[in-house]
Task: inverse folding
């Protein structure tokens, strides 16, 4: 099991890197298309091979290393986006932001500067913030989220439906997207309660002016259901697995 010293060394060596999972955009004028990917951290360990984030994100959060980890995820993603766009592949990227990362009022300025130094633009980024994370201290969170939004970053409320925000807070926060948690999506064909929650979330999101993404879509019937209900975008193994950057262009071409 990796410890804090291992993780520190991995960050110093550059062994933490983003994989990219495609997201299908359903409201694209010429039919479903992959316009966005979610960056998901992987640890390329010299001895143990690829380590999944479940094994090190909690460690990173409890040791403060989630800050440098997020920093390198954003920096590598920004360089990759700039490269893809130079090659004619027009993509945006979603990055997971832990609540501990967005505590300082100068973070929005520093993040935007990082992105621009890497040849990218904040508008190409969606920051995924968990509902419970965003709501912990709502006045302070509101201030920082507003600054991020003013810098041009798009904001997504991740894992929607599993947190404990009030709807008033969701309404006031400058989110652009609501991401329905995969626990409601996976079995929705068999579970009418899950479908009720999905339909209510889509309606709520749209009535608040947000686009709605569903994650955890593993089958065609689930994809079709969400499409019919007016979901704006779809993420899940049915659309594509998280892959290394080098594999993504081919995956996007196959899907279009
Ligand atoms: O990649 P995988 O599907 O195994 O991701 C597992 C969890 O780890 C997900 O909840 C995802 O949000 C989280 N995660 C992956 N990469 C990052 C990251 O760069 N930062 C943060 N904060 N969480 C991440
Ligand atoms: O919201 P969050 O960042 O936690 O979501 C990313 C996580 O969801 C990653 O662990 C990713 O590997 C996982 N994931 C992505 N697509 C699917 C899917 O279709 N089914 C399941 N079970 N997990 C998925
Ligand atoms: Mn996410
Ligand atoms: Na999620």
Result:
């Amino acid at each position: 099991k990796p410890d804090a010293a291992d993780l520190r060394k991995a960050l110093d060596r550059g062994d933490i890197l983003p994989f990219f999972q495609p997201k299908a955009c359903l409201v694209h004028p010429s039919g479903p298309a992959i316009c966005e990917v979610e960056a998901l951290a992987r640890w390329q360990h010299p001895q143990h091979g690829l380590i999944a984030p479940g094994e090190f994100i909690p460690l990173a959060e409890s040791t403060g290393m989630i800050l440098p980890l997020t920093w390198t995820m954003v920096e590598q993603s920004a360089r990759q986006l700039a490269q893809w766009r130079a090659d004619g592949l027009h993509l945006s990227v979603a990055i997971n932001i832990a609540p501990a990362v967005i505590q300082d009022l100068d973070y929005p300025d520093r993040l935007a500067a990082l992105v621009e130094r890497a040849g990218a633009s904040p508008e190409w980024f969606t920051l995924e913030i968990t509902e419970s994370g965003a709501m912990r201290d709502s006045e302070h969170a509101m201030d920082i989220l507003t600054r991020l939004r003013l810098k041009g970053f798009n904001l997504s409320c991740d894992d929607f439906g599993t947190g404990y925000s009030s709807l008033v807070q969701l309404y006031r926060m400058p989110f652009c997207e609501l991401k329905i948690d995969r626990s409601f999506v996976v079995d929705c064909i068999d579970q009418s309660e899950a479908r009720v929650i999905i339909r209510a979330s889509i309606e709520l999101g749209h009535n608040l002016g947000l686009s709605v993404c569903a994650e955890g879509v593993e089958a065609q019937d689930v994809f079709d259901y969400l499409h019919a209900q007016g979901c704006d975008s779809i993420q899940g193994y049915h659309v594509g697995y998280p892959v290394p950057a080098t594999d993504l262009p081919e995956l996007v071409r196959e899907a279009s």
